[in-house]
Design a protein that fits this description.
The chain is an all-alpha fold. 73% of the residues lie in helices and 0% in strands. It has 14 helices and no strands. α1 packs antiparallel against α14 and α4 packs across α11. The model has no long low-confidence stretch (mean pLDDT 86).
Length: 275
């Protein structure tokens, strides 16, 4: 009887879960199918779900376009650098606020957390003026450096570090280890769970960036993938099938990343205490 009751509960849950999954995947499925359509069918009315003629050439053409490949490569390079820098800077700051005691710590923590409540668009102009004066425009650095420090990610890591038993630090100090060695040899190896969450979020944020790149990058060799797609849409708007194919290929790295780490992301958010 208990098994039947569990089955009655599980079946509706499974059906609802599948419905949500289908709704969530519809835009990706439509984009994938549109990549195989002739240009006049992508936005045709009434809407055609399947193409009348399967044009694999849309995918092969965009995948062999040197400009597209360069934009993907530059975006990937920048995303890796940005993710690594974010993990390094925010984990060190999180360790300091979680474990060290110093004058003004509370005030600095309030100031750091306070930046979470400032909309990014509110400081967009001042940020642009700053990087202009630093002569960082049209460089990879202008895409990577300004956003490395993140109060939200610092807070997330700090919550995780607060759960680390203090006995581990005390034992290391007895053995003569300093703070830097404790951070490198104890906290960093234990940070894999929270690093997965922060790393994926940082990678996605950089990969999907659009407003900041179009403000600071004008050299085509440094275009990120969202910039490339925006230019493609404005300059080659009739080639809709090619645009859909490029959009899907541009989304694949992020989709694959989330699929690989989805279970770890959900589990590690709970570990960090953000339920």
């Amino acid at each position: 009887m208990a098994a039947k009751e569990r089955l009655r509960v599980r079946i509706p849950r499974t059906i609802v879960g599948l419905l949500f999954a289908v709704v969530a995947l519809l835009p990706i499925i439509w984009m994938a199918l549109s990549g195989f359509k002739p240009n006049n069918e992508v936005t045709a009315t009434p809407l055609r779900v399947l193409p009348s003629e399967w044009m694999v050439s849309n995918y092969t053409d965009i995948a062999t376009d040197p400009t597209f490949l360069r934009a993907m490569a530059m975006t990937g390079l920048g995303a890796v650098l940005f993710t690594a820098g974010t993990l390094a800077i925010n984990s060190m700051a999180a360790y300091v606020f979680a474990r060290l005691e110093f004058t003004g710590k509370t005030v600095l923590w309030v100031i750091a957390i306070g930046t979470m409540f400032i909309p990014s668009m509110a400081i967009l102009l001042t940020s642009f003026v700053m990087v202009t004066r630093l002569q960082m425009l049209d460089t990879l650095a202008v895409l990577v450096l300004p956003g490395l420090a993140s109060a939200g990610q610092m807070f997330f890591m700090r919550q995780f570090y607060l759960s680390v038993p203090i006995a581990l630090e005390e034992a290391a100090m007895i053995d003569g280890a300093g703070r830097w060695r404790i951070y490198l040899n104890i906290f960093l190896p234990m940070s894999q769970p929270v690093f997965v969450v922060v790393g994926v979020i940082s990678f996605m944020a950089y990969w999907n960036g659009y407003v900041w790149p179009i403000m600071t990058i004008t050299t085509e060799d440094l275009f990120v993938i969202q910039q490339y797609l925006a230019n493609f849409r404005s300059e080659r708007s009739p080639e809709r099938g090619l645009l859909m194919a490029g959009s899907l290929l541009a989304a694949l790295p992020v989709i694959v990343l989330v699929v690989i780490f989805q279970r770890k992301i959900i589990g590690n958010i709970k570990i960090a205490g953000l339920k």
